[in-house]
Design a protein that fits this description.
alpha+beta; 207 residues; 2 domains; 59% helix
């Protein structure tokens, strides 16, 4: 089998059945003939469209962490809660493991995900051939399950309901930013990373 023929084959991630790669239209996906698992899919959005979404998510991420999530008013006392402030409070109260976990899953991993996507999409869009493309892509795939912004949003909404009975709760700017960020991340996470590898690889081997 020639090298060119090998590049046209794709293995099923579940049963290892080999298939000949077929061209797809945007939004379509190829399935394994043996187990019906998804082999690959063609994203609906182009890399330049995804790059715009990632930039918007980075801006929203910065706003979400720069402003308070909630403002509590009780008996003339006003308290503002930010995500990083909450992490610092957990740390000073002796909850170091919890603070580290919250920091990693709601700040570190999502930010690394966005920055990695920005780097990969920019490389594909500009036609760059960085040596770190493949390592960053593999790291991103391994890191994605640890980003839990949506879990944070669920916890904040539950806290809003409970705290509203004890004090006046005013949603902060960061809360709306986190809501917008959740939708932006959903669009980013739905993008098949394998399509980035295919686009980059084709441009890399192109004369």
């Amino acid at each position: 089998m020639t090298v060119g023929a090998e590049e046209e084959l794709v293995a099923c991630p579940e049963c290892d059945e080999l298939h000949v790669r077929q061209p797809l239209r945007p939004g379509e996906r190829a399935k394994c003939s043996r187990c019906s698992s998804t082999l690959y899919r063609m994203p609906r959005r182009r890399p330049d469209q995804m790059l715009a979404i990632v930039v918007a998510a980075l801006i929203t991420f910065a706003i979400a962490h720069a402003y308070p999530i909630l403002v509590l008013r009780a008996q003339g006392i006003i308290n503002e809660a930010t995500l990083l402030g909450s992490v610092a409070a957990l740390w000073t109260e002796g909850q170091e493991p919890v603070a580290a976990l919250v920091f990693a899953t709601t700040w570190l991993f999502p930010l690394c995900d966005l920055l990695s996507m920005f780097f990969l999409l920019l490389a594909v869009e500009r036609g760059w051939r960085p040596v770190l493309f493949a390592p960053v892509l593999r790291t991103l795939q391994a890191m994605r399950p640890w980003g839990m912004i949506e879990v944070l949003m669920l916890g904040v909404l539950v806290s809003l309901i409970k705290l509203s009975k004890l004090a006046d709760v005013v949603p902060g700017v960061a809360l709306w930013a986190f809501i917008a960020l959740t939708f932006l991340l959903a669009a980013i996470l739905s993008y098949d990373l394998r399509s980035l590898w295919e686009l980059w690889h084709r441009r890399k081997v192109a004369p």
